[in-house]
Amino acid sequence: MLAGDGIGPEIMTEARKVLEVVNASQNLGLELDEALVGGAAIDAFGTALPDDTFAKCADAEAILLGAVGGPKWDTLPPADRPEKAGLLEIRKRLDLFGNLRPAILYPQLAGASSLKPELVAGLDILIVRELTGGIYFGQPRGIRELENGEREGYNTYVYNESQIRRIAKVAFELAQKRGGRLCSVDKANVLEVTMLWREVVQDMAKDYPDVELSHMYVDNAAMQLVRAPKQFDVVVTGNMFGDILSDAAAMLTGSIGMLPSASLDVNGRGMYEPCHGSAPDIAGQGIANPLATILSVAMMLRYSCAEPQAAQLIEDAVSRVLDQGLRTADIYSEGCRKVSTSEMGDAVVAALTQG
Ligand SMILES: NC(=O)c1ccc[n+]([C@@H]2O[C@H](COP(=O)([O-])OP(=O)(O)OC[C@H]3O[C@@H](n4cnc5c(N)ncnc54)[C@H](O)[C@@H]3O)[C@@H](O)[C@H]2O)c1
Ligand SMILES: CC(C)[C@H](C(=O)O)[C@@H](O)C(=O)O
Ligand SMILES: [Mg+2]
């Protein structure tokens, strides 16, 4: 368990409460351990990913992460910052290339969505984001000085065929288990890297005759997500487009505080984290929504621990708490009861223990 920075420790405390209850009641036998990452690790050890933290991650069946980063560390050199030296480093070193970001609308939250209730009722989208390649990791990268003395920043957007194939395979297989529709999002009208992306994904479609494949440019996909989001079942896309589209999709579900994620390697070992960040604007106030992290625990039990029943218990408990009208500030609407981060965690625990 890597709590990280900002609201990270607050939401992780609640996730841990929930995990401990399920661990005991379902006899899961999970051993929990903690370590520092991100800004917290920089402050304590001078590095965002201490060797000891990485060793614990590499040994673990699964990793649960809160969030990293914040204004305190934003002036560090790019390579030392919590986001790059902590989070991206774990993703890369453990080869966690398959990022699943489900945007599901709990019916109780239809009124909290930024879209009209009828546009989001029954929403269930899965964004499959490639997580260890693309422009986030391409070389060369940097900030250089030009002959005229001006500085120029540059990054390289690169994907090879095998990287595209392995993420597309994840997406095709998930589409087979879900609604049978896969939309690949690219910018193949401009960027060669995504022309190759489209070609490879198209070529793979013949192996998945039961999946209806479509392609969409990313600008249109952003528009369609807020126009008619229910047209999507599974969306597969590269690292940066997936980052942006998943934050947009989050808002359809009422709040970014509701969106969990799984980041998996080829064997299903994974890191689980809410899609949101460390929310420095509300850190320390006890008002952050812990449900994305609690739902990430459920994803962890399902994908890395082969405990789908325990995962379901948590998801059902979250649903019951929402039925009771309990809301953190980000999902609050009139007639509901506004609760703090810890009251929300306690309510999920109570719903679990009351069955
Ligand atoms: N996985 C991660 O660790 C991760 C992800 C995204 C951003 N970050 C980092 O987090 C810091 C802040 O980034 P940002 O402000 O762009 O994004 P953010 O997701 O932290 O916050 C965006 C907005 O959403 C709100 N919000 C986020 N999570 C919430 C929750 N659980 N409950 C209620 N409201 C919530 C915040 O208060 C803020 O207004 C930056 O340092 C960024 O690099 C980390
Ligand atoms: C903090 C940042 C590096 C990260 C990303 O861009 O992948 C975050 O935004 C996310 O969505 O997990
Ligand atoms: Mg993001």
Automatic annotation (TrEMBL):
It comes from the Bacteria. The record marks 136, 187 as: Important for catalysis. Its main location: cytoplasm. Its EC number is 1.1.1.85. Its cofactor is Mg(2+); Mn(2+). Keywords: Amino-acid biosynthesis, Branched-chain amino acid biosynthesis, Cytoplasm, Leucine biosynthesis, Magnesium, Manganese, Metal-binding, NAD, Oxidoreductase. It is found in: Cytoplasm. Mg(2+) binds at residues 219, 243, 247. Signal peptide: none annotated. Residues 1-348 form the Isopropylmalate dehydrogenase-like domain. InterPro entries: IsoCit/isopropylmalate_DH_CS, IsoPropMal-DH-like_dom, Isopropylmalate_DH. Belongs to the isocitrate and isopropylmalate dehydrogenases family. LeuB type 1 subfamily. PANTHER family: 3-ISOPROPYLMALATE DEHYDROGENASE. This is 3-isopropylmalate dehydrogenase. It comes from Spongiibacter thalassae.
